[in-house]
User: Fold this.
Amino acid sequence: MILLDGKKTASEIRSELKEEISKLVEQGKKVPGLVAILVGENPASEIYVKSKAKDCEEIGMKSKVERLAGNISEEHLLDLVKKYNNDENFHGILVQLPLPKHINEEKIIEAISPKKDVDGFHPISMGNLVIGKDTFVSCTPAGIQELLIRYKIETRGKHVVVLGRSNIVGKPIANIMLQKKDGANSIVTICHSAAKDISIYTKQADILIAAIGSPNFVKADMVKEGVVVVDVGINRIEDKNSSRGYKIVGDVDFDEVAPKSSYITPVPGGVGLMTRAMLLKNTFKAYKMYCE
Ligand code: GUN
Assistant:
């Protein structure tokens, strides 16, 4: 069993980007920039946004966090997004989700210029992905494919089984792996909560991607010997032995499933860190498109 090390791989990606950015800046080019917009006071979102800013700083990218009160109007937020659509110093715009209930998330996502849609959530980006056009792909699925490629895992003709049909992970990763391209070209099945016996599908997986948000859901008797396992879950469960009182586990029961796997991502230390790295990569892509 080989660990798919998201920490090491994400660090390699940051080093590569840092080098490319420093070369461009030496040539007198603008510094790439990412703006993150955070509405209200959600502790988890605050942590995400801070870590994104730290990543940007590490690789020489400009980053700005716009903090807005939880009671601002939808119009106010739309105006801010439009302002950054026209700001040449910021090549990527990220509106941290979830937004407060009185703001229509879809409307805000659709207001972001597709040229700056580094989250890949805009319907134009999603549509381009489905028809196989080069586009921004949301960071978690992009990070999963990057891990598979960097570990030279064969995907062509392999059966990829995706657990979960979210717009952020399940649907985009299924579409990525379906593409007639290197690092994809797989046979893809998407499973979801309406499956009567999900193990019928999981047992057939050459590559199993779990993104359902259910702690330790995938057990050893649900997978075949030699499976490649990508665990997207980040779930908190009670842990009396920890001073925090909880621990983070994935959607896969790692202790049970790892011995049967050829490759597996740990949680934490797997996909989560790749998501952060891919946000930087997408921002750099937006910047290069701007420079052209
Ligand atoms: N909230 C949790 N994860 C994400 C993400 O990847 N992007 C945005 N915009 N919000 C999030």
About this structure: The chain has two domains: 28-113, 139-271.
